[in-house]
Design goal:
- This protein is α/β, with parallel strands linked by helices.
- It has a single domain, classed as Spore Coat Polysaccharide Biosynthesis Protein SpsA, Chain A (Alpha-Beta Complex).
- It has ten helices and seven strands.
- A seven-stranded mixed beta sheet has the order 3-2-1-4-6-5-7, sandwiched between helices.
- α4 crosses α7, α6 runs parallel beside α9 and α8 runs parallel beside α9.
- The longest helix is centred in the middle third of the chain and has 18 residues.
- The radius of gyration is 17 Å and the shape is globular.
- It starts with 11 loop residues before the first helix and ends with a helix.
Length: 261
């Protein structure tokens, strides 16, 4: 894959036309995001009222679930904090069991701008990708983060690119769109601790087509990140080990894939 360039997102109306009658779902993982989750839901509906929204409340101790329900979202409340992986697999199982054709991931903290959903949806709707990831590291994106995070992201990108034999630039981005094949894969098997890097490898190992597109991301609208500087070091070490172990791991077979064997 070539270096990402700052290119205009596809027009909203063109993407909505491609969505047509497809059954689509936005999965919003949230942990103590009462300050931002309502706005995220409103922005998704502003992009496309046809999107169903499921908020996976990952053991929040604030009013996240109530704020989401008040905005008309489906709310799945986990009894305690499972982490982003457990929350996302819950959302994907919801999507798979209810027969959704397309799903997008939009974080509940407000960093992902739903107005940029056309960028990640278009390659999936055009049949060019099973999983499309919004990359923060396109030319001119202006994305800033701590030195430790930038270092970790660069290391992950180099390692994952070598493993999947395809250039990737943002393996930790949670702004994603998937088709039915991706939904089935992630419903069956999803890493439960800082999973984005591992799911990139999973996707390619299952012969799903991966693409990245440039997107702009915002600062958090509320809440606090669970990844401190010390946890960043732990995160880097654990994920690199998980990638190595994953090279020899037999992943779960998605139900639809297993059915056709």
């Amino acid at each position: 894959m070539a270096e990402l360039a700052a290119v205009p997102a596809p027009p909203r109306d063109a993407v909505l036309a491609q969505l047509g009658e497809l059954k689509r779902l936005a999965i919003v993982p949230a942990w103590n995001e009462e300050e931002s989750v309502g706005r995220v839901i409103d922005e998704i509906h502003a992009f496309d009222p046809g999107f169903d929204i499921v908020v996976v409340d990952d053991g929040s101790t604030d009013r996240t679930a109530g704020m989401a329900a008040d905005r008309g979202a489906h709310v799945l409340r986990l009894p305690f904090n499972l982490g982003i992986g457990g929350a996302m697999q819950t959302g994907y199982r919801f999507a798979f069991e209810r027969g959704y054709d397309v799903a997008v991931q939009v974080d509940g903290d407000g960093q992902h701008d739903p107005a940029q959903l056309p960028a990640i949806l278009e390659p999936v709707l055009a049949g060019e990708a099973d999983l499309c990831v919004g990359s923060r590291f396109a030319h001119g994106s202006g994305y800033q983060s701590s030195f430790t995070r930038r270092l970790g992201i660069r290391v992950f990108a180099m390692v994952v690119s070598a493993v999947v034999r395809q250039k990737v630039t943002d393996t930790t981005s949670g702004f994603r769109a998937v088709n039915r094949r991706g939904i089935a894969l992630f419903a069956a098997d999803y890493p439960h601790d800082y999973p984005e890097v591992e799911t990139t490898v999973m996707c390619v190992k299952h012969k799903l087509c991966l693409r990245e597109v440039p997107v702009q991301m915002r600062e958090r609208a509320g809440g606090a990140s669970s990844i401190t500087a010390l946890r960043s070091v732990y995160y880097m070490t654990k994920v690199l080990l998980a990638i190595f172990v994953g090279l020899f791991r037999r992943y779960a077979v998605p139900p639809e894939e297993d059915h056709h064997r």
